[in-house]
Each structure stands twice: as structure tokens, then as C-alpha cells.
């Protein structure tokens, strides 16, 4: 009997202490302060009117050496992939086209172009086909050659033509790199020749004076 009492006393004491621990002496102590009470749903801030892709992707998606990889890498270099941007020189959209080039593609409404991503993609593809026609002989002659430590590739040539025009790319190649012009931001033909080399653009059909 005494043994049972000795074993029971610690259990009773522990139970009593636990009850005191979880029941406050003053019920006012457990009141929630007014400033912490939530009586209605909290509004969530969200940039409803902003284009999110430029903020979400700080680097172009890795798409390998495909044509899609080529155009997305070029777009990221030009505008970080933003369809709706105009730079300080007035170049428009994801691929930063000038008004003169747009007119060559058959686009005469800059506002419509800037607000139409599908049209921008069509213009880019059409311009690549046009530049490929202009550079067709130079592609045959120079692809695989080395100019100033840069291996010449078809994609590098087309990217450089997007930057500086196909005529200037011809001059660069035929001068073996001596004629290397830069744009207003300091990016040169040789920069693009190197940066965008090795992409597969072979399936793009060359076209003479194409329109969208």
C-alpha cells in the first residue's frame, strides 16, 4: 500500500503543476490585442497592370542551339525580352526594330507594332529571311572561316545583320574584320558574330523582299 502511495504522489504533483501551467490566473491575460485582430480578409498587393515576364526572368531561358534559342537569346540581349519597350533611340519592341526596317517589312503603324507581340514575331522571322537572302553568297563563302579569332557561322552573321544591317556585315566579312562598326551603345558586329555563333538557323528559307 505504501509503495502505491509513493508511486502516486509524483504523478499527482505533476498533473497539478501542468494544470496551473496552462490555466492563467487572470483570463484577461489571454486577450488578443485589437491591432492583431483580423475581422475581414486582407487585401493582397499584386501588380495587375504590369507585364511580369521581364521581372520573372533575369536571364534568357536555356533553349540550346535551336532557332528558338537563337531568337530568344537575341531578344534578351536587345530588350530583355520585353515586347512593349522603346529604347532611347526610338527602337521598338522585343527585337528593337527601327522604323525604316519596319517599313521594309510592310509595317507602317509603330503603335500597332509595339502592342502586337504576334506581329513582332512575324517581323523578326521575315527580317531573318530577308537578311539571309542578302547574305546568301557570303554565307557560302565565309561560314567556317576564322576572322580575328572568331569562327564565322550563319547565325552569327544573321545576328550581326540584325544589329548593323546586312550591308555592313558584308563589308565586315569582305574586309576580313577591318570594317567593324558599332551601334550607339558600343556593340560591334564582331561582338554579335561571336555571341550568337553556332545556332541552327538552317531551316529559315531565304526570301527576296519579303513582307509580313
From TrEMBL:
<protein>
    <recommendedName>
        <fullName>Peptidoglycan-binding protein LysM</fullName>
    </recommendedName>
</protein>
<dbReference type="InterPro" id="IPR023346">
    <property type="entry name" value="Lysozyme-like_dom_sf"/>
</dbReference>
<feature type="signal peptide">
    <location>
        <begin position="1"/>
        <end position="21"/>
    </location>
</feature>
<keyword id="KW-0732">Signal</keyword>
Amino acid at each position: 500500500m505504501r509503495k502505491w502511495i509513493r508511486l502516486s504522489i509524483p504523478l499527482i504533483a505533476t498533473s497539478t503543476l501542468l494544470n496551473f501551467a496552462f490555466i492563467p490566473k487572470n483570463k484577461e491575460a489571454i486577450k488578443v490585442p485589437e491591432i492583431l485582430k483580423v475581422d475581414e480578409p486582407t487585401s493582397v498587393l499584386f501588380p495587375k497592370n504590369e507585364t511580369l515576364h521581364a521581372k520573372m526572368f533575369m536571364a534568357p531561358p536555356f533553349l540550346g542551339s535551336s532557332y528558338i534559342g537563337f531568337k530568344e537569346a537575341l531578344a534578351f540581349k536587345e530588350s530583355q525580352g520585353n515586347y512593349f519597350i522603346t529604347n532611347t533611340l526610338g527602337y521598338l519592341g522585343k527585337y528593337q526594330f527601327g522604323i525604316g526596317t519596319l517599313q521594309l517589312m510592310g509595317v507602317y503603324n509603330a503603335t500597332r507594332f509595339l502592342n502586337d507581340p504576334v506581329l513582332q514575331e512575324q517581323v523578326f522571322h521575315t527580317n531573318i529571311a530577308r537578311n539571309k537572302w542578302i547574305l546568301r553568297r557570303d554565307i557560302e563563302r565565309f561560314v567556317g572561316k576564322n576572322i580575328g579569332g572568331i569562327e564565322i557561322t550563319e547565325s552569327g552573321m544573321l545576328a550581326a545583320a540584325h544589329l548593323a544591317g546586312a550591308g555592313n556585315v558584308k563589308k565586315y566579312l569582305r574586309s576580313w574584320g577591318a570594317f567593324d562598326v558599332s551601334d550607339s551603345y558600343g556593340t560591334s558586329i564582331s561582338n554579335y558574330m561571336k555571341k550568337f555563333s553556332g545556332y541552327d538557323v538552317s531551316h529559315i528559307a531565304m526570301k527576296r523582299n519579303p513582307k509580313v
